[in-house]
Structures
1.
Amino acid sequence: MAQVMMKDLNKKYDEVHAVKDVNLHIRDKEFIVLVGPSGCGKSTTLRMVAGLEEITAGEITIGDRVVNDLPPKDRDIAMVFQNYALYPHMTVYDNMAFGLKMRKFPKTEIAKRVGEAAEILGIQELLKRKPRQLSGGQRQRVAVGRAIVRHPQVFLFDEPLSNLDAKLRVQMRVELKRLHDRLETTAIYVTHDQVEAMTLGDRVVVMKDGWIQQVGEPLELYGRPANRFVAGFIGSPSMNFIDVTVAESNGSLFAETPGLRAKVPPAIAGRLGPYKGQRVTLGIRPEDLHVATGGDGNDYSFDTVVEVVEPLGSEILLDVKVGSNVIVARVDPTVRAKLHDKMRLALHPERVHFFDNKTELAI
Amino acid sequence: MAAREPRSIAGGAGGAAEAASRVTVAPRAAVRSPWLGQALENERILGFLLLSPTVVLLALFIAYPFVKGVWISLTNATVGNPGQFVGIQNFEKVFHDSIFQQATYNTFVYTALATVGKLALGMWLALLLNRHFRAKRLVRASMLLPFIIPTVLSTLAWKWMFDPTFSVLNWSLYHLGLIETRIGWLTDPTMALMSVIIVNIWRGMPFYAISLLAGLQTVSPELHEAAAIDGANGWQRFWRITWPLVLPVTMVVTLFSVIQTFADFQLVYALTGGGPANSTHLFATYAYQVGIVTGLLGEGAAVSLAMFPMLFVIVIIQLWYIRRVEGA
Amino acid sequence: MAGRGGSGAGMVEGAKWKKWVYFYVPLGVFVVGTLFPFYWMFVTAFRPDGELYRPWRAPNATPFWTTHPTLEHMVYLFKQTMFGTWLYNTMFIAVISTLISIFCGLLAGYALSRLRFPLAGSIGTSIFVTYLVPPTLLFIPLANIVRDFRLGDSPWSLILTYPTFLIPFCTWLLMGYFKTIPKELEECARIDGASRIRAMVQIVFPIATPGILSAGIFAFTLSWNEFLYALVFLSSPQQKTVPVGVLSELIRGDVFFWGPLMAGALLGSVPVALIYSFFVEHYVAGLTGAVKG
């Protein structure tokens, strides 16, 4: 059983409180991604699991052991570093064999495991080379190989793809996912790239300023963000936020701001009740806006003026002005739009989000 | 100044005249004539010119004395008397001199043991200083003091600490119950050589420590972390990761240090003067004794020069080793 | 640092006591071992003679410090010996030698690292090869040469010979610094109208200031440390440098005047230590720069 549990985990460096009350239960064989901007505490949390940082308060359990006081070598984990951390003076083979040598595995077993890992990763040809003779992608594979041979209980990944160029990154992402399916080992993966998080994770943990903002499956984070930060962090281009006032008219609630008057969908209206007359933040993703057709009623449509047109081929991004706000809409590639055009957009009522202005929580 | 075609700047004939005429700030007094200015723009002339003070000084006070030293060693010169050519007579005499043989033995033992001691302790201290702790800078700066303070002065402090009657070391050891009779730090022949080695280690260890520390800092901490996760304990991490990666720096430091230690004079002269019973004489101190104190310049020069071939061999071996390690 | 709440940097290492045994204790021993002789020098310099000469077996109420500090040794040092003169001599020689060495080192370092000319490689190598010829090999013939040049028993005998072991190091160090300065800076200056020499002095040298400071402090401390040449070339007491003076004038035959000796050693060490303390970083940079090649 290789579940990982973090209970009330805290980390303080002198004055800086880097990780605050992290509670997380990672299931066996789960691939969990910690994501967030720099400084959010995700790497620190990972390093505490690895034993590379001491724990200020709280508890970490790997399998059925509490590992707080165990040095890294006794935790039965393997780690892939952002800069690969390959031993420059050893060949690829020796790099991969090192961990097994430390644990006194017999030579034949080592050869077998290294061979297997090399095959899985396609680096059999490179075994006799030294790290400085390898490309970035190859080094990364060796780093992964070094982790695989140990057959650990948990894999830890610290932004392993950050140093690769964009194309390679996409390719490696897919390979890592396949690898995980094949190896079926618990994995904790840290990244600042929300695309990686969404595509790789069984569950995603969004962190900011040392706090966990939300934990959930990727689509849950996308569709039902718990607060404004998660809503803006997940999804690209990011969600539009508009400051609106909640007004009542004819028994229905409306979200209003100069230039925009949208009805609050009945499903959400109940929750918004207490905010009558107050200001809240409305959130709508660019992909949930479309050019208004006859079928869209007035309730959910509004006028805009086009400011920037970004044709991407598969879609067009429009920066449009609504009142004093500028928002981004993602529309069909067939839409003809020019600078300063007037355009009427409609939003998808099921996909509107509202956030409390003070707490930033989703309403 | 107008209507001149653009010229290349890469020195050569005429370039400097061009440059001198285009300079908007008042020309330096040094460039008095176009010919001189032009010469100074020439890479070759400038190169030689810049090197000349150094070359002159080194030629006068190293090359010339070296040659002269060889000459003197082949004569029976004494102070005030240039003497006559006697061929290798001095060398024969010296090689059969039992004190010289003792000095040879002493120098090799001194160099070998002191170097090993300095390397081991220096490396240990470097590893300790490589961590983070409060007052790290202060500690690091103060650790260099033995190396900074004039050797003779700190050696005198040791001599006082080793004094047969008043040694604070003997006092402490006695009152801790560890010894009954006093340790003859400088009075017992075998012990004296050890004492000299100890002081040399004390003095030279900081040089190793600080240099090796710089080497250690080039090893990315991630490598240690990866090794720790791979299952290596502290000792294994040192031997298999740190040591091989720091080896180039280690070899260079050792090379410097071995040359210095082999040719050491001050420390032994101040601490024991070569005694007791010639048990601490090194090449340098014995050469001084024979050449300056006794006044037999020819023989003294021979003793000095005897150092040279061995020094040369040691250096060649180390340079070869460094080349091998860096190539790997 | 105790307990789990500390500043927390670093790997988990298992039991807490390990940190004490493997780190704090050895570090403490190193610090004490390294600094004790200086401390002892200090205490002895201010200890009255009565307390000083107590045999090793005798009990001693205050073995490691004194309750009656005295300046009698300092006074003896300055009144009965020419210590003040020695201090001045040593400082004078060190400063001038350092300046000469830096001057030569700058010029030679620049030439070797920036200019191409025939024999550059050979000359460069031979400068460093002089390191193989230590002073202890040369002092006998040099004694004659110094006399022949009529420099005997004067500070100039040292001022001109010290650079022989200071210049190679300064050159090496400064070459390292010059190599990190992009050629484009000089080329730009020369296009702007500066001569080579001007570009060298006004562009390259100022940027290499940290290197100059490093070379300077290193040369300065090495000068103070020199003993053999000073011992052989100087004879009259008023010309001596501190190390030579302290060693020769405070020992009469077999009698060691330990109080003044330690006072002399202490005061002789203070100027160097003081100046070093202002330039520690530069010294360390110089040391490590040279070694890392």
2.
Amino acid sequence: MRNPDAVLPAPPRFQHRTIGEYVGILVVVALVVSSIGATAPDLSALGRGVQRLFAPSGLLVQMFPPDFTRIDRIAIKLLETLQMAVAGAALGLIFALPFAILATDRLSPHPLVRIVARALIAFFRTVPDLVWAIFFIIVVGLGPAAGVMAIMIDKIGFAGRFFAEAMEEADPGPQDALRAIGASRAGIIFSAVIPACLPSFTATSLFSLEKAVRGSAALGLVGAGGIGVDLKVAFDLFNYDEALAIILLLLALVIAVEQGSSWIRSKLI
Amino acid sequence: MNAPLGASASRAGSAGRVGPAASVRGLEKSYGGPRVLDGVDFDVAHGAAVAIIGANGSGKSTLLRCMLRLTEASGGEVALLGSEVSRMRAADLRRFRARVGFVWQRHNLVPRLSALTNVIHGVQARMSGPRTWFQALAPAEVRAEAMACLARVGLADFALRRVDGLSGGQSQRVAIARMLMQRPEIVLADEPDASLDPQSGEEVMRLLSNLARESGLTLLVVSHRLEHTLAFSDRVIGLAGGRVALDLPTREADAGLLRGFFDAKS
């Protein structure tokens, strides 16, 4: 019989690996090193760049103090940015729900419909919102409408995926019970699926809004409305102090939205 | 809409109750391996309370699910309330299911919603649209009927409680109230006492049995407890080897014989 007090030998620190695994590790390391070598700045150039930032005519020195003289105009554009984010996220969330329902195994009317819905959601998610913004500038012209459309499509991709995942994971029991009663597909979705997924839907919606606010500022850089347009103009005209004012106010807006959404999440979920 | 509870029974009565309430002929089911059901035959008269017993894996739950085509059978025929369930098209089947109450092992309620809203969902057997989704949207007569159903299971005071805060026994009673809201003409119950403690299980079985008797409903209940089989049924059907191996009135059943069905390996 084994003595329970006996000290057991420790297992080996590393498990034996196959030649294939070693080759795989080498390939990954080579890929990382070659990518850094090909694209990362060399250290001397980086050092010179940092020196220039702090030179008397450098970017950081010219940025301070921030210039708030045009705060009224900046505030209006910030409001427009927020409106773009809210409108785009709301429209995106509204359209994400039907896409997600069609992409869910148990709820989709036909496997082919499910495949198409999933493919569209993946496509919307994969194409960056800046590309969508450029596309919609061509369609509806420069301005916030293009930004709203870009955010909407991006959020259909983002929320559609998470909505569908939440519905896939929902307990099938209540759905089966309603199906056995003879309830319609809409009845099952709105009576059993959506109430069960509400906490997850709320969290996804709030993350969508936060993401939309952060993203909407960048959309202006390509002309899709919002504060991004003014930020680009400030940089183009070397008004770095005004650019810093815009960045600080944008930061305040993003933090406010994130705090607000955290508070709502804590209350609702 | 304002028909009294138990209207289903009178409805069944007015239909003349011609033929059996349930008729199963040569029902077969296989999940790829050996047949779980291998030619099951039986008839159930209107108003009867039938207990279906058998060992774990003997196909009791599969039988009930196949009868309502919640699981498609591999072969055989099922007629409920005079309608050939096996041959119905999807849309007709959906409408027909409204007439059949199904009580599940787990209550299968929507956890974040109130007991009242869950009971109101039962009206989706005969109504559709947003007014049946939440109690706040439901018409006054639907709300009143749902409250009456909750009162019948003794939970009227719990109407606005979220069901995820109720005990297992209370939840199963809410599920029975939802089934009553459906105004069924026949009830299939798949081990409604399985996930409950002995006392709650007995209360739920007694409630189901009394409600069925009061309303003249036909009741087929899969049971895994001998004492419930003896107390709450007037006929016992035993499954073994995928077939009906026992079929006799409960009063003639020998407890030792029945116990053999519970203990046997499938």
